[in-house]
Amino acid sequence: MQLVTEQMERYLSGGAWIRKIFEQGLELKKKYGEEAVCDFSLGNPDLPPPPVIGECLADLSCRMDKPFALGYMPNPGYPEVRAALAEHLRKEQDGAPITAGDVILTCGAAGGINVFFRTVLTPGDVVLCPSPYFVEYDFYAANHGATLTTVPTKPDTFELDIAAMEAAITPRTRVVMINSPNNPTGQIYSKETLIELSAMLTRQNAGRDRPIYLLADEPYRFLAYDGATVPSVLPLYPYSLVIGSFSKNLSLPGERVGFVVVSPDMPGREKLVAGMVFANRIMGFVNAPAVGQALLLRALGQEVDRTIYERRRKAMAGVLTRAGYSFFMPRGAFYFFPKSPIPDEVAFVERLAAERVLAVPGRGFGLPGHFRLAFCVDEAVINRSEAGFAKAMAG
Ligand code: PLP
């Protein structure tokens, strides 16, 4: 009896690296105890949400006797949340004159990406994305009958290779998708790079009746180090959208609140927004969570204590440097993506696991020869991992 589709069979037996490492980690922790394992496999923010979240929840709990306290709402979200978010995004997105009608609330960035894809992709379309990349994009494109084509970034710096991206564009390319600050590399694309990318897309759009959209996936926007800034694509390219999330900056990943905002310069954007509102409904999300939106309204502009991530980044860089690894110093987000000292990074990740240090092989992000470390763990874990990194390096 075939209980699931062939595609799902393939997914279930495929190389889900993060899940494999996660399961291996559980085994190791059972055998040696939690303290003995340095687990850098998951990008699950460990910091508690800012105090305003608890206060808001307490206030909300006093309002539950009102009718519709947690009732259905318009599919794009509470109007006052859309308005407040639009005002917040005007500042955050380099002054783009965003209004409430340009924003919809979604079930996290993941929900937002799927809502957008549902609205613009037809089977056979292609989403183009630089690699390494967040592998869920593959599944999200496939959800809508499309495929993801990846183009390698430049070696070592993980900068966009815009000439290579242009060469990869075909008449079926419908979306170019970037993620900055990047998971897994920590790179942030400069304004000059984004201007160049926008000029390339404008050139490629000439004569098309379906524009190529530029989608910027920005769940790590708040986490830029050493004074780095994250430029906005919205004022640079009219067919651009930004997808954001409160999973990381407010440590709310389980509450599923994110948003999609379209460029105020996009001609006829009301149609695209209406499509995404409809998609939010028919994909079964209906609306982003009521509680999450109430939390967001209260906490907009606040964030977790990012100095903790800054200290961890320094500690991890110190550990890796002393142990002899070569790596790009992340400019944002909470990941390192060092080079594997041996070509087969899966074998190297196993060597690390034997030292009870858990990492994810680069091929899980479309770039073998590297491995990813998520530093959303206590600084003590980072410091404790040094001996394991050194031993694995020594072979
Ligand atoms: N995009 C990237 C690059 C991510 O790393 C993640 C989560 O780790 C997401 C999207 C999904 O975020 P959300 O929890 O907001 O759905």
From TrEMBL:
Signal peptide from the UniProt entry: none
Pfam families in the record: Aminotran_1_2 (PF00155)
EC number: 2.6.1.-
Coiled-coil region(s): none
Keywords recorded for this protein, A-Z: Aminotransferase, Transferase
CC cofactor: pyridoxal 5'-phosphate
Aminotransferase class I/classII large domain sequence ranges: 38-383
Molecular function terms from GO: pyridoxal phosphate binding; transaminase activity
InterPro entries for this protein: Aminotransferase_I/II_large, NHTrfase_class1_PyrdxlP-BS, PyrdxlP-dep_Trfase, PyrdxlP-dep_Trfase_major, PyrdxlP-dep_Trfase_small
Family: Belongs to the class-I pyridoxal-phosphate-dependent aminotransferase family.
Protein name: Aminotransferase
Organism per entry: Solidesulfovibrio fructosivorans JJ]
